């Protein structure tokens, strides 16, 4: 890839709303992405390979559990900082952001929120550095948008729980050391279990031939009579609210992350349009290209204000799941539209690996589907404003 010249657009001086700490955290993440991610990411995406060597650096910049208190190895930062880190990572690549999202919001968050003190001490500090990596198993072959229908189940065998079932489309699965697995007990209640690699009957085959999120490893979690020690049950998680609370945290980060991909696309298109000449003029001088660029910066600005406000609500503990759904849905769709438009501004060059646009575009096709599809988030807003669930 050519030199990474990224500077984020800030049309409404949103930076003035950030603290010095926020800017410090964001700039450190940005520098790390420029140094470690941008030079190698295209090659890894072409090969559909997860750049495992980035794990240590992700830990060092605080991308694993930024909001987890320092006593458990986290960075003890607020949710705006978490969002800004996700923005910078996804500006580099959605696959790298996905790895950090899963580790932070779907593995560390449930252990912190629903785990015992022993579980927190045992796992969180190692997850914060990347010494341990985790996965989150909710989706199943027959249950995606409707996780409450899950078939994975466990039975109390006195000394241990016996776990059976299968999860699919699981980020980080092929290399994860532990998995937070959501399964039903004998009463049909959804509970969370910490399953460790090496437990007999537990396997994690990789999913191949993805055209999207090619730098993120995806796989299955298969449980065949896995004996899970009783101390690996998350004591405070009960019912679907458990996994959904984790998804709120991850979706919040995705709303920021998608913004990063959109910013990268806008910046790339703007720079190219000013440099590329056709009919004797820079293509940026043509109204049709200006329309594209002007609409991009307008949408980015609206999305920036949306997540900034959401982050403040979340810091104050006043955010709702429906507000997060709205932000995730809006910002991912916004990013996908901007990346598609930016790709066109670059003409044929836009389809090459010289520029990040096709990679962002294909990545966002997963981002618009995982953590609740675009449709499902719309139905959540519909339910919230009418009081009528239209899911079934
Ligand atoms: C790359 C990738 C990584 C992922 N990582 C993880 C992970 O780490 N952990 C995990 O647990 N899951 C993960 N997922 C799974 C993801 O969350 C699911 O794919 C998603 O929830 C949708 O489920 P589904 O694919 O089964 O689609 P389905 O639920 O079958 O939906 C198919 C279509 O039907 C629509 N639809 C469904 N129900 C309704 C309804 N009631 N009304 C209207 N339309 C409806 C949907 O919007 C969608 O358009 C990942 C997925 C991908 C692609």
Individual helix count:
10
* Proportion of helical residues: 40-55%
How far apart the termini lie comes to 47 Å
What is the fold-level CATH name, i.e. the topology of the largest domain? Butyryl-CoA Dehydrogenase, subunit A, domain 3
CATH superfamily of the largest domain: Butyryl-CoA Dehydrogenase, subunit A, domain 3
Shape: globular
Classify the beta-strand content into a percent band. 5-15%
Distinct ligands, ions and cofactors found in the model: flavin-adenine dinucleotide
Q: Architecture of the largest domain, according to CATH? A: Up-down Bundle
**Number of structural units classed as domains:** 3
CATH class label of the largest domain: Mainly Alpha
Oligomer: single chain
> Structural class of the secondary elements?
alpha+beta
Mean pLDDT equals 97
Return the string of H and E elements. HHHHHEEEEEEEHEEHHHH
- Major sheet strand order: 2-3-7-6
* Main beta sheet strand tally, sense and closure: 4 strands, antiparallel
What is the rounded Rg?
21 Å
